[in-house]
Specification:
- By secondary structure, the protein is an all-alpha fold.
- A hairpin with a 2-residue loop joins strand 1 and strand 2.
- About 40% of the residues are buried.
- It has a two-stranded antiparallel ribbon with strand order 1-2.
- Helix content is about 75%, strand content about 0%.
- It starts with a helix and ends with a helix.
- Bound molecules: geranylgeranyl diphosphate.
- Geranylgeranyl diphosphate binds next to helix 4, helix 7 and helix 8.
């Protein structure tokens, strides 16, 4: 059994050893730059762990683990362009360091390299992995579009928001686990249960992200604390606040959405959140999904000791403060 750190080291080495071409420089240098910025590598770790639950040799899932991490990085590069984000993982984004066209094309190349990794498996395995990967990629696209649609809508329901984060964030965690399980030789019921574990963990993870964005310690948080409030992002916290607010609080939230002074804005929204106990309500929802995730894991027909690394990773992800 390996520790989270062992799996992370393994995947970091594999990424360092990707023998990417050198030219055209503007295509491959941004990829090397972005992959070198770090990140938790939680998706490939999930793939390797899920494989090891069913097979003593987790390295057989190496190419799938690389595929999910490369896909994730591709989506981050494109997401940063769409969001016009200056920073990612505490460093300049690709479009900021080069330009948007470079970001689009190097992101595209990363996606293709991800597919090349899946194509290394035997045809029977590809037949199982590819539909899952394709379905997931399409859902991530749908999640991203819904997220953008929400920017110009004032009537987003909490269930719609949960559907959006399921697609944008959670399904890739499920897919990472299911691919590892398939490669490891699990039965389809356990592979599906691991997928569900990943989706519910992903929902809890994204809700935690919403909470951290408002309440994290700025010295530990990789992004700007209050960034979602400043950008009027429709997070779970904001939608819940609108749902629970009285007419005076609704009016204050509406006025704060127009506020130009960022400190006044963040403090104002936070004070409405405090009045409505929004942090506790968001934590309740986060814990709800986390508990379902743990029940999914419990339902898998293997010994507790084999599930322990996945449980450790779930604890690690939910205990993060950055
Ligand atoms: C799928 C064809 C296709 C297009 C992609 C751009 C896009 C469409 C989707 C964006 C998806 C996206 C960026 C989702 C956010 C997921 C998320 C929670 C990112 C942060 O993940 P961490 O915390 O990051 O694992 P690190 O840095 O640790 O890797």
């Amino acid at each position: 059994m390996n520790s989270i750190e062992n799996y992370q080291n393994f995947i970091n080495t594999e990424i360092e050893n990707l023998s990417l071409p050198k030219e055209p420089i503007q295509l491959y240098e941004p990829i090397t730059y972005f992959l070198g910025l770090g990140g938790k590598k939680m998706r490939p770790v999930l793939t390797l762990m899920a494989c090891e639950v069913f097979n003593s040799d987790f390295t057989i899932a190496k190419e799938a683990a690389l595929a999910v991490e490369l896909f994730h990085n591709f989506s981050l590069i494109h997401d940063d362009i769409m969001d016009e984000a200056p920073l990612r993982r505490g460093h300049e984004t690709v479009h900021e360091k080069w330009n948007s066209n470079v970001g689009i094309l190097s992101g595209d190349a990363l996606l293709i390299i991800a597919y090349q990794k899946i194509a290394t498996y035997k045809p029977a395995l590809i037949g199982e992995l590819l539909p899952l990967f394709n379905q997931t990629a399409l859902e991530v696209c749908e999640g991203q579009q819904l997220d953008m649609d929400f920017e110009s809508r004032n009537n987003v329901a909490i269930d719609e928001y949960l559907h959006m984060i399921k697609f944008k964030t959670a399904v890739l965690l499920g897919c990472s686990l299911q691919m590892g399980a398939i490669i490891g030789g699990s039965n389809s019921k356990d592979a599906q249960e691991l997928y569900n574990f990943g989706v519910n963990l992903g929902l809890a993870f994204q809700l935690q992200d919403d909470i951290l964005d408002v309440y994290a310690d700025q010295n530990k948080f990789g992004k700007q604390v209050g960034g979602d409030i400043i950008a009027n992002k429709k997070t779970y916290l904001l939608l819940k606040a609108y749902e629970d607010a009285n007419s005076i609080q609704t009016e204050r939230l509406n006025q704060l959405a127009e506020e130009k002074d960022t400190t006044t804005k963040v403090n104002g929204v936070k004070s409405v959140y405090t009045e409505l106990d929004i942090k506790t309500k968001a934590e309740l929802k986060m814990n709800y999904f986390y508990e379902i995730a743990l029940a999914n894991l419990e339902a898998i027909s293997i010994s507790s000791s084999k599930k322990q690394p996945l449980l450790d990773l779930a604890h690690f992800l939910m205990g993060r403060d950055q």
